[in-house]
Specification:
Structural class: alpha+beta
Number of domains: 1
Strand order of the largest sheet: 1-2
Radius of gyration: 15 Å
Oligomer: single chain
């Protein structure tokens, strides 16, 4: 793989991760679920209103 191929692959992976995060937040809001996240080095439960 060339350097350019690796860069393009990494960009596609990053976009996929962001899309998955967005869908997870949308589903949590829709189903009124709490998400457990690591924020500022601390584990926190966030309600849909905080997302």
């Amino acid at each position: 793989m060339s350097e350019q191929d690796i860069k393009e692959l990494q960009e596609r992976i990053d976009k996929g991760i962001l899309l998955a995060q967005k869908r997870l937040v949308e589903r949590a809001k829709h189903d009124n679920l709490k998400l457990v996240v690591c924020k500022n080095g601390r584990v926190q439960k966030l309600s849909p209103r905080e997302l």
